[in-house]
Specification:
- It is built from 15 helices and two strands.
- With 324 residues, the chain is mainly alpha-helical.
- It folds into two domains: 150 residues, no CATH class; 79 residues, no CATH class.
- A two-stranded antiparallel sheet has the order 1-2.
- Helix 2 packs across helix 8, helix 3 crosses helix 11 and helix 4 packs antiparallel against helix 5.
- About 15% of the residues have low confidence.
């Protein structure tokens, strides 16, 4: 090969490489959007939170006090948590008593809320409940619980609570009334009901005010009422099974129990309970009465009493008296 051809061949061989180096890089393939994948859920917080949202981005309401839920997110030992649990237990007892003492008022508030009650109708009812529940509202429960847990955990506890309450306040519709079946809110006397409370008290302060605290209390009362209704229904069903009631007897007995509930509320007096049972016993046959007596005398509570304790059970009917 002629020496003069070598430079030419070398240039021709290098030409494709030079062209490849000068050519722009190919554009990355365009990823088609996932039309049917729905909205993306972007997590912006890695710390513990009570805030959870549904598919539409709406806040999922807690079925318990946020203070109780927040405690579960803290790394507390049983001993560290014990004082806070005591506060929550004591509050549960007070909420039950508040419902028993003010059942009519609570039902009026619920009826007014469900009927779209106006501000002039709602305000006096809410104010009356606020006065009756003063010790449950001020100071707020979160302050009591925070003071009962180790100091090192209080900042995190307060952050979890305040972030949830802020999200709760921001979801309130323009009429100031919480959505999703929540009870009517506590309103500032100086603020019109149609104005969102977050305009009057912006930021976390709006979420931590007495209005939100009243809303949480009303939800507690609603859960307590549901619990009472569920317990009574289960007790009634167990009673009917114990005596093997006929359908006609079951209807009559359930009516008697409902009448007691309407008169005695969640805490009927001893006399009211006795009167109710007399009416029920009148519905039962002698054989059914014996079944009920046997169930009472063999119940676990009766048997758990110390043998030295004198146990006297008396069944009184209109036509006879049986002592066990």
């Amino acid at each position: 090969m002629s020496p003069r051809l070598l430079p030419i061949i070398a240039c021709l061989a290098a030409a494709p490489l030079a062209v490849a180096q000068d050519a722009p890089a190919p554009a990355p393939p365009v990823k088609e959007p996932a039309v049917l994948s729905g909205p993306r859920v972007v997590t912006t917080e890695s710390h513990a939170t009570l805030i959870k949202r549904d598919f539409n981005g709406k806040l999922e309401r807690l079925e318990e006090r946020p203070e109780h839920a927040a405690l579960a997110l803290l790394d507390l030992t049983a001993e560290e948590r014990k004082p806070a649990d005591g506060i929550l237990t004591e509050r549960g007892t007070k909420v039950a008593k508040l419902l028993a003492d003010h059942m009519d008022l609570f039902l009026k508030i619920q009826a007014a809320r469900q009927g779209g009650g106006k501000a002039d109708e709602m305000r006096p009812l809410i104010r009356e409940m606020h006065d009756a529940a003063a010790e449950l509202i001020d100071p707020p429960l979160r302050e009591k619980v925070a003071g009962a847990i180790p100091e090192a955990k209080r900042t995190e506890f307060n952050r979890i609570i305040e972030s949830y309450l802020k999200a709760l306040a921001e979801e309130e519709p323009p009429n100031g009334r919480p959505s999703g079946g929540d009870p009517a809110p506590m309103q500032d006397e100086k603020a019109p009901m149609a104005e969102p409370a977050r305009r009057a008290r912006p930021g976390v302060a709006a979420a931590a005010g007495p209005r939100i605290e009243m809303n949480l209390l009303l939800r507690e009362l609603g859960r307590e009422l549901n619990s009472v209704v569920t317990t009574r229904r289960e007790q009634t069903e167990a009673f009917l099974r114990a005596v093997d009631a006929t359908p006609e007897q079951a209807d009559t007995i359930q009516k008697i129990f409902r009448e007691q509930g309407s008169k005695g509320g969640t805490r009927p007096t001893r006399e009211q309970r006795a009167e109710t049972m007399r009416k029920v016993m009148d519905v039962l046959t002698p054989e059914q009465r014996r079944k009920l007596e046997n169930a009472a005398l063999t119940c676990p509570v009766h048997r758990s009493l110390h043998p030295d304790v004198e146990k006297v059970v008396t069944f009184i009917y209109e036509d006879e008296e049986v002592r066990g």
